């Protein structure tokens, strides 16, 4: 029997302290439901004592059914020199309707003096009173010992007194926080071990990533006896972020054999992490461990030829265990074996002796020679291969586009695009403005397609990169445009190469939309007659 | 006296295996020079046996002076069943002209059987012969024991034999690699300890980040006796990346008291990390530990009020130690010290109390808030500073430009620019075609200027990069264009920011030409009469 570890997710509270993250109540509910599917044990939804948005969140989830997770609300110990029953912050926790309250208090004598400016004794009383009050209201109480490690290093005796007070008052969990993220794994190990030998209450760990050690520190704490890990999906959080649950969960379960979530739930990890990044509107780094798009991507030729013999030669786990998958980045460095792997992935009959295979390899070679580089552009490669082996429905073809950018002194620039495309045999002529030329083209092309393919509204471009291929004469040289596009389920990359940045962008853009529409069925525009009257559709 | 640890940077070799990273020879040289300034001890420049770009790199650095770093070239042990003196790969290392060779060999019996498909004995001979051959050529030899930790876990006896062979053959360093990134800190600790008790050769560590533990694993190895750490700036590298030197260096030096680089060099860490991300055209996550823009940014109200009382309440180190700074307000000036350094370099009287200084700092703050980042654009910063302190002659001003791109099916694209500028009071109206829109603009603007400034013919744009600043909505987001220009004597960089890529390019282009013309004297066009007849000049 393996030991079980509880996961406490604070994406909705501490996670939102990260720069650039802001979640609506609706966003928070969506994420909470996903976290519940993933199987986390606690979901910290917000701080009802600090803002009305969080109060609304708790109102809305009060009657919702969660399968796995308990919802918890965050707050602080009572204010100094007051009574818990008069404390608005504590009462908001009670009123929020949660069954679990999480409150933080001070462990570091320096903070008691400097930040809250009271006596060490009063701080102990604040901890005791607050935990005791919430327990008297029938709540499960998680006590977060803020700055515990810094406090312990500065005055271990006092730091221990603070958590003993929480224990005396009946706290269900005592969570040791490395709030500044400055501690090292061996410090965590020795301090958690000392705490475990002094208190009986179950212990948790709350780490921050300021030294890029939050995952290691969380594992060290568990190995020293902690049984709850607090963190956020994708490591969102203030400064350098909180401990990243997307890495901690698989490390605990697959590497250290703790019982955390079910095997099935673990398989949803990649999808949940990407979903949260979409809702939070944060770009997910391709190299994010376990769940990133490149986490199991192979580029070097030696690596690729070895993984064809056995994937475990260059993969530390089977990617499917966390719902991710192997990708082979095709590049000149690696040669043909990478194309072969991609074809296998797509179940194409890629026999090297076939004429089709020879032709497509020649074509890819030729494109690479022109400056295409498919390693970062899976979707463009997939389109090429599917076209060669299966044939692809021609969804739209370009007849022409015009793009105009105009600027006068002291006036902001104007961009317009006029696009004439044939969609399923009908010529559509549209025009649109945009923030820039590519945005204008994107807008015009979508306008032409959305009536037939309404799903295209969910697709958006999430990254855009331009690389000059021959730097010797930069503005007259070829450029490679790499675009990344996203909908709620997945992310794909496409590319285009041309000496003209607009043309290169057009190629990447059309590939992105062609990929998005693979397997999608055309609908008949609801307002076709009207369009014909307006002259938008020409037969 | 603290113990010294050597830093081996492989940004230019293993780092380029990361998805989306591709460096030109020029980029590699720029990064190598920066790494040397930072004070790393070894710079691995590439794999001369694998591609001609890397051969060119070693040719170009051969006669360059590096203050701190030794340049090293990477390769593998000889092929099976052959002689080292006949091995092209080993001979390329010798021919590259480096004084230090880094070669990798197999430690894991599984790989010997599966990947290179030879006998365990032949693999030992391959290691011995290769190290011995390179030593006989007078080189310092770093032996990278690939997959050492996986090998040791599978067959510790054989793994130990492989590194003993390297030791016997005279290797100067034996570097233990966690190639798949799947090991945990306690495994690293126990295996490095076992190795240290069996061999005398100095030991290094090479970790990957697949479990988000590469930094922790590198520290664990050093604490167990390793004295060389291999990694990359910003953790670039295959899959989830290599160990991140931007975090490891400050952790070793500030937290564990090892001697790594000088205090002054450490203060350049943030700037070097950002510079490398600019050159590599990789977005730096704001929450990157130590060097990220949000690494010391405070958002939570409680945190902010506490740091106003004492910064150490919520900061684990003083940010200036790594050249970063605290940010509380969004528009805080990130690179003030860089501005100061630049002003000193230009001999400007940059007294913080002067009104001019305050004004220019405000202006730069404002521009940074808009997305300007002067770290990679010296020339634009110099123009700003000179303008504020000395005034600059207005060489030309824009009246308007129009830019047209047109494409029809099966025809190549056409780009035209029409530019109306005032040069020394005369309005000049020119038009030009180009390979792309920026090239067309460049051509039209040059046409207007070259008659007054013939020197401008020698200037050309040598690199052009585009970065999307807010990935949430890529084609409608702001973009930053970074241009590098060159004449026969020097190279300079300029930038422009706009939501329109053409406008951003225009700003960078005009800065480039303004910089090129600094101190140049206007000449009277030889053929002015003729131009007037042609209507090119309007008074």
Automatic annotation (TrEMBL), chains A, B:
Domain Pyruvate carboxyltransferase: 5-267
Family, as annotated: Belongs to the alpha-IPM synthase/homocitrate synthase family.
InterPro entries from the UniProt entry: 2-isopropylmalate_synth_dimer (IPR013709), AIPM/Hcit_synth_CS (IPR002034), Aldolase_TIM (IPR013785), Citramal_synthase (IPR005675), LeuA/HCS_post-cat (IPR054691), LeuA_allosteric_dom_sf (IPR036230), PYR_CT (IPR000891)
SMART domains: LeuA_dimer
Record-given protein name: Citramalate synthase
Pathway annotation from the record: Amino-acid biosynthesis; L-isoleucine biosynthesis; 2-oxobutanoate from pyruvate: step 1/3
The keyword Cell cycle belongs to this UniProt entry's keyword annotation: no
GO molecular function: (R)-citramalate synthase activity
UniProt cross-references to Pfam families, sorted A to Z: HCS_D2, HMGL-like, LeuA_dimer
Superkingdom per UniProt: Bacteria
Enzyme Commission numbers on file: 2.3.3.21
Keywords: Acyltransferase, Amino-acid biosynthesis, Branched-chain amino acid biosynthesis, Isoleucine biosynthesis, Transferase
Reaction(s) catalysed by this chain's protein: pyruvate + acetyl-CoA + H2O = (3R)-citramalate + CoA + H(+)
Organism in which the protein naturally occurs: Paenibacillus hexagrammi
Upper taxonomic lineage: Bacteria, Bacillati, Bacillota, Bacilli, Bacillales
């Amino acid at each position: 029997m393996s030991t079980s570890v509880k996961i406490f997710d604070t994406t909705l509270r501490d996670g939102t302290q990260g720069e650039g993250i802001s979640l609506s109540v609706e966003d928070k509910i969506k994420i909470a439901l996903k976290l519940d599917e993933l199987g986390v044990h606690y979901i910290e939804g917000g701080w009802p004592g600090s803002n009305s948005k969080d109060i609304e969140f708790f109102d809305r989830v009060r009657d919702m059914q969660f399968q796995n997770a308990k919802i918890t609300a965050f707050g602080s110990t009572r204010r100094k020199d007051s009574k818990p029953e008069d404390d608005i912050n504590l009462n908001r926790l009670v009123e929020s309707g949660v069954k679990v309250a999480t409150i933080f208090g001070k462990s570091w004598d320096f903070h008691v003096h400097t930040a809250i400016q009271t006596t060490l004794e009063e701080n102990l009383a604040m901890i005791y009173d607050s935990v005791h009050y919430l327990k008297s209201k029938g709540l499960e109480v998680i006590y977060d010992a803020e700055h515990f490690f810094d406090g312990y290093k500065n005055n271990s005796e006092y730091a221990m007194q603070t958590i003993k007070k929480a224990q005396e008052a009946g706290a269900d969990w005592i969570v040791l926080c490395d709030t500044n993220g400055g501690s090292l794994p061996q410090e965590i190990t020795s301090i958690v071990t000392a705490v475990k030998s002094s208190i009986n209450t179950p212990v948790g760990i709350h780490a921050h990533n300021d030294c890029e050690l939050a995952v290691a520190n969380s594992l060290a704490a568990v190995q020293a006896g902690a049984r709850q890990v607090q963190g956020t999906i994708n490591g969102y959080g203030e400064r350098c972020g909180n401990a990243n649950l997307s890495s901690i969960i698989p490390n605990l379960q697959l590497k250290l054999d703790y019982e955390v979530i079910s095997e099935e739930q673990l398989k949803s990890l990649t999808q949940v992490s990407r979903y949260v990044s979409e809702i939070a509107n944060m770009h997910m780094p391709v190299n994010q461990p376990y769940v990133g798009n490149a986490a199991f991507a192979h580029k070097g030729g030696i690596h690729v030829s070895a993984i064809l013999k056995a994937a475990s030669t260059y993969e530390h786990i089977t990617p499917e265990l966390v719902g991710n998958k192997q990708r082979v980045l095709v590049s000149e460095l690696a040669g043909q074996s990478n194309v072969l792997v991609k074809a296998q992935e797509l179940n194409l009959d890629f026999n090297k002796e076939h004429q089709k295979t020879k032709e497509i390899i020649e074509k890819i070679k030729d494109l690479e020679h022109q400056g295409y580089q498919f390693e970062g552009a899976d979707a463009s490669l997939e389109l090429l291969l599917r076209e060669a082996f299966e044939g692809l429905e021609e969804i739209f073809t370009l007849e022409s586009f015009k793009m105009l950018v105009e600027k006068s002194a002291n006036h902001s620039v104007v961009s317009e695009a006029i696009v004439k495309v044939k969609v399923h045999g009908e010529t559509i002529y549209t025009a649109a403005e945009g923030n820039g030329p590519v945005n204008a083209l994107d807008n015009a092309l979508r306008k032409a397609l959305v009536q037939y393919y309404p799903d295209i509204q969910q697709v958006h471009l999430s990254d855009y990169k331009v690389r000059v291929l021959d730097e010797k004469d930069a503005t007259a040289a070829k450029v490679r445009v790499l675009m990344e596009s996203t909908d709620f389920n997945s992310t794909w990359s496409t590319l285009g190469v041309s000496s003209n940045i607009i043309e290169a962008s057009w190629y990447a853009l059309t590939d992105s939309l062609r990929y998005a529409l693979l397997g999608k069925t055309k609908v008949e525009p609801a307002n076709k007659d009207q369009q014909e009257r307006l002259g938008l559709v020409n037969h």
